[in-house]
Specification:
single chain; mainly alpha; 3 helices; rod-shaped
Amino acid sequence: MQKTELFNTHTFIKELVNAGMDEKQAEVLAEHQLSMLEAHIATKADIADVKQDISTMKSDISVNFEWIKRVLIGLCITSGIALLKYIFA
């Protein structure tokens, strides 16, 4: 798998050194910046996992909704029959 460049550390270090920062300090800062980015940015694989989870949840909700719909229809039919028996009894 090819690793995508999140942050150009070389350019960042050069800019910090040109602005007057010590090169060692710039390198440490660049490494910490890169590790923070890597830890907190979602990858395409992360997004694919979330999409899969959402898809699974949607199908589960759909199945549960169908079950609830059938129960409600059954209750309506039962109530209707009981009402008719009450009216015509």
